[in-house]
Structures are given as C-alpha cells and as structure tokens.
Amino acid sequence: MNPLWHKVHWSSFIIHNHILLQSPNIISSNCSCFISTLSVTNPIQGHIRNGKINHARQLFDQNPTSRDTVTWNSIITYYIKHNQMQYAHNLFDQMPKRDIVSWNIMLSGFNKTNNPHKLHQLFLQMNRAGEIPNHFTFSIIISGFINTFNVLVPQLHGLILHLGLHSNVFVGSALMRGYTRLKDCEALHRVFDDVVVKDVSTWNALVVGYMELGFTVEAQMTFNKMPDVNIISWTSLVNGYIKNGKINQARSIFDNMPQKNVVTWTAMIKGYAQNDNYIDAINLFVSMLESATRPNHFTYSTLLDACAGCSMFLLGNQLHSCILKTGLLCEVVVSTSLIDMYMKCGDIEVALCVFESMEKKNTVSWNSVIGGCARHGLAKRALCEFEKMIESGAKPDNVTYINLLSACVHGGLVEEGERHFKLMGMRYGIKAEMKHYSCMVDLYGKSGEIEKAEKLVKEMPFEPDVGVWGALLTACGLHSCYEVANGVENLARDHPTIYSMLVKLHGEKGEWSRAIEMRNKMMETGARKQKAGSRTEFVHGVT
DNA sequence: GTGGTTTATC
C-alpha cells in the first residue's frame, strides 16, 4: 500500500475517472515476432535483434573471426539503447578498427544521455583520429551542443559547407535550431534556403524559429505556404503564439486544428496557466478528458503548477489521486510539481511525504523541498535537506542557493548564510546572481548588520535592482538607520516600491515635507493602489 | 549498425 493513499480523499476518484477508464490500452503490437522471422546472415546480430544480448556476447567473445566492425557497432548500439553507456564506452575503446558509424553511434549515445561535455570531447578525439564527419555526425553534434556549445554552430556550419553537406535535411534542421538559439534570423533563413529537398520538419523548424525570434507574422505566413502540415506544425504555431503572449490567437488556431494530441492540449493549458488564467486552464483540462485524450506526465505537471499558482488545494488533491491511478507518480516532473503544489498550498507534511517516497530525485526536486521548507520558516530543515542533497550526489544550482539563502534569512542564520554564499562559487562554480545578493542583503539587514549589507550592495558586480534596494530599505526601517536610507534615495532608480518605502521611513522620522515629496515621486513613477481581493474561491488551507 | 520538428517540474 502506498503510504500516500491515506492522504488522498477517496471522493477524488469520482471525478473524471469514468473518462480515464474508458481510454483503452491499445499498445499491444508485437514487433519482435516479425523481426525474429527475418533471415540474418550474422548470428550475433540475430541475437541482438531478438534482445538476447548474453547469447550475442558469448558468440562474440568466443569467435574472434566474427568480430567485424558492423558487429561491434551492433553490440555498442544495444548497450546504448539499454542505458548502459559505460559498457558501450568500454567496448568502443577496445575496438581494433572504428568506422564513421562507430563514432556516430558513440556520439549519439552521449547526446541521448545528455552529456554535452563528453560529446564535445569525443568529437575532438574523432577529428584527431582523422575521421571525416558525415551528415549523421553533424546532426548529432549540433543538437547535442544546443544548450552548452551553441557558439560553435557557425564554425560547424563552415565545416558543413566545406564538406558539401548543407543540403541535407537533417543537418539543415539541426543548424536552423542552432541559429534560432543564437537569434540569427538571417542565418536561419539562409540555411532553410540551402536545403534543396525540404520536408515538413524543415518547414516546422522555420515556423518555430520565427516564433522564437518574435516574428509571428512571418511564422504564420510560412505556415500558410507549407506544402504539407502535420500535427507538429499546428502545435508549433499554437505554442509560438503563446510564447509571444498572443493567447487568443493561439486559442483560435487551437480550435481550428483538424486534430489535437496530448502535446497540443498541454501546450494550450500551460499557456493559460502561465498567464494566471487558471479557470480557462482547468476548463480546457476537462475538455481534454472529454475528448478522450489521455493526460501524460507533462499535463499533470502543468496542472499542478496551476494549482500551486493559485493555491487550489482540492483540485491538487484530486489530481494527486488521478496520478496515483495512472502510475505517473514515478515521473520526476510529476512528483516535483506535486511537492511544490502541496508546499504552496500549505500542506508541508504531505509535500515531505511525497518527497521521501520518490525513488529518483533530481536537482529540481531537492530545490522544491528546500524552497518549500524555507518559505514555511523551517530553516533548520531546509539546511538539513541541503546536506542530504549533497550527500546523495545531486548537484546544487543557482535556484538551490536562492532557496538555501532565503532559509537562512527566515532563520536569522547569518554565519550559515555567509558560509554558503562563499562556498557556492568556490566549490560549485555557481555565479552569484541578483537574487543571491538580495538574500544576503536581507540576511545582514534583518539581523541588524546594516554596514555589512551596505558594503555588499556597494561591492556588487552589477547594478542593484528593486529587490536589493528594497531589502536594504526594509532593514533601515527595522533598525531606524535613516542615514543609510538617505543614501539609497540618491542611488536607487525611480521605482514606486522604493519611494513607497521612503514615504514610510520619512513619516516615521516625522519629516513630513520629505515624506510628501517621496509620495509625489511615487505617484510620478506610476504607482497604483492595488485592488484588494482575497480570491476566496481559490484559497484552501493556505497558511 | 548512426540523424532532425511540438508540451517539461524549482
């Protein structure tokens, strides 16, 4: 029995379950039978195709004559497909003779396991070995470099032109993705033109590229000109409009689509949720269930995110029961969103319970639990979870440290905070960003160490933002440091929040003329009285 | 025996 069951309302199962149960599981095609009837010349490859790796290895290890390059490659491919990169790499290193396919298989392995540094190293090693890259090589490495070594795209493009591989569809769409990331619209279009025989993916890459760069009109025109469109083209269009803030246009495309899949539905739901339109997000989810489209882990994650955003505890709870039923709790994105939802709805106990029950945790999961504890004032617990995170081998990132430092602020743990602030760069190479500085200023400020706070603001490698100035001014108010506050007045950029704080400070000091002056400045900078609202229709169990 | 397009949690 899952320990979480007792936490979930049984009534939750009533909702939508009839629809979930109706979806039949039709994935039962039996491909392996078909493959096993094929005649294969090499018995080792036959065993691999039938999934009998041990038989294959036995033959391979016993008969040196059977070990041609294709066989080596087949075995390495098998290991990569079964997530055994280390085995694959060992075999690759032992190969007496490698061909271009061997290199490409290994490169593809590093790409699939999301290891851009190893991918890069192997590519350099391949060049040193004198192997000439082909169109497979380029499509693999460009897509693998997209997040880390994207600066190399123009250089690789040069090499591609030199080798005459620019007209290949796969190379073309990989390059287009690369140039989209580099925000080079001209190059994007040039690569598109160079692909002689374009297919639907090439066109899709152009639509996505234009959308990413903010050219919605060009994207739409491209879509209209497309000789063939598929569901991905439509979804890219919907998603592009959402990314450009044109949610109504996205919806109109969405409504006119000839068919939709789970990705399309999820993209549209996310569009609403991101724009704080939670009602439409949920309504759309209900329509999705009615259309018999089965939600996947991204859909649930998106919906839980919406619940977290407006503290919809009951719906979050119901979603939890659906997730348990569909077996999607094992997905890291789902359980992480679930933790965040429970934390933001105030149920720390269940949030921690979900977290403890997770088999696989990643940096984001640790971040949400550390952040949740920090927000609820459980500073010691947050620090403790951080220690456990390090012990588990997970790597902290910038968000981890924002959460950790804010835990220190809540707990008034100045020394701890100082220590972590130093260690984050020294041990983990994480550069301190604006938010880390504002945490530190807040930490010093709240504990009365105004000089240290002021010194840090002066020493910051970039212009402080409202958050940093706000933290400093709050400290001035708390500890009646009017001199420092006067200094801030001359330095802080025009911002209603800053002036509003200064009004309060001058008022407390009894300097009414200065207070009025600040109030006028505040109004000039566009301050508006906020509409009061409890949003009672959403709030359940918020602390 | 190798490759490209849509949703992705803090």
Automatic annotation (TrEMBL):
Keywords, comma-separated and alphabetical: Repeat
PROSITE patterns, per database record: PPR
Top-level taxon in the UniProt lineage: Eukaryota
Coiled coil: none
Pfam families: PPR, PPR_2
Keyword Repeat found: yes
GO biological process, one term: RNA modification
Keyword Repeat found: yes
PPR repeat positions: 68-102, 230-264, 362-396
Gene Ontology MF terms in the entry: RNA binding
Xref: NCBIfam families: PPR
Name of protein: Pentatricopeptide repeat-containing protein
Organism of origin: Tagetes erecta
Lineage: Eukaryota, Viridiplantae, Streptophyta, Embryophyta, Tracheophyta
